Amino acid sequence: MSQTTIIIVEDQEFTRRGLKLALDRMPDMQVVGEAVDGSGAVRLAQSCGPDVVLMDLVLPGMDGIEAVRRIKENQPEIKVLMFTAHGEESEVCAALGAGADGYCLKGAIGEELRRAIQAVVAGKVWLDTAVANDFLHDYVSRQKLNKISPSMTVPDFSPLELTVLEGIVDGLSKQQIAGKMNDSAENVTDNIRSMLKKMQSVDWDKLRRDDRPDHS
Predict the structure, then answer these.
(1) Could you give the 3-state DSSP secondary structure of residue 55?
(2) Model pTM?
(3) What is the pLDDT of residues 168-181, one digit of tens each?
C-alpha cells in the first residue's frame, strides 16, 4: 500500500504527540517529521519533501501563514493542510490565500482527518464544514435567491467565481471544476485566489449582524 508522507507542525507537545499517534494508526499515512515553528517547518519541508504538511496557524516566531507561503514558493507540489483551533473566516481566507490546500479544525482526529488529507492529495480544496463550508453554502444560497440585502457587505463574486465556489461546495476537485467550466485548472486556481482576496476584505461581524432576521 502506498503511504502518504506527512510532516506535523505544532508547537504544543501534547497535541503533536496525539496527532502523531492518530496518524500512526492509519496504515496509509506515514509521519516523516515534526516541527514546532514556522521556520522549522520550511526547513523540514525542504529536507523531507513530504506529500502533506499539517500546519498549525499560531506558532512561535514565523507563523503558519508565512510558513505556508514560503513552502509553496519553494515547493508548490507539497500539499499544506491547516490544522488549527482557529476558525474565523478571516483566518481561513488568509491561510488559503497564502497557498494552503485545505483548512481543518483540531478535533478532526480519525476518519475525518484522513478524508481531509486524502482530499488535498487528490487536488481538492478541503474546507472544514464547521467554519468554511457553512459560510459558502449560505452565500451561494443567498446569491441564487437574491436574498442579499443592500446593507450587507459581501464579496462581489463574478459569474465564473460563483461557478468555482459552487464546485468547491459540491466537493469537486480543481480539475473537475475546470472540466465543468471548460477551462484550465490554473484558471480555477486564479479564480479561487481572487475570491479569497475579496473575502479577506469583508467585515464579517457586520455581515453577521446584517443577516439576522431582526436586524433593523
Answers:
(1) strand
(2) 0.70
(3) 777 788 888 899 89
Say which range, 12-26, 112-126, 197-211, has the weakest mean pLDDT.
Answer: 197-211
Ramachandran quadrant class, 182 (left: phi over 0; alpha: psi -120 to 50; beta: rest): left
Task: Work out the burial of residue 68: count CB atoms within 10 Å of its CB; fewer than 13 is exposed, 13-18 middle, 19 or more buried.
Answer: buried
Helix, strand, coil: what percent of the chain each, to 5? 50, 15, 35
Q: Which of 13, 6, 70, 14 minimizes the C-alpha distance to 38?
A: 70
Residue 11 has pLDDT above 90, yes or no: yes
Residues 16, 79 share a domain? yes
Q: What is the pLDDT of residues 192-203, one digit of tens each?
A: 767 766 765 555
**Domain end: 108, 127, 146, which one?**
127
Q: Which domain holds residue 82?
A: 4-127
Any idea how long the chain is?
216
Place of cell 469583508: 202
Contact 116, 212 (CB under 8 A): no
Give dist(CA 215, CA 20) in Å, integer: 46
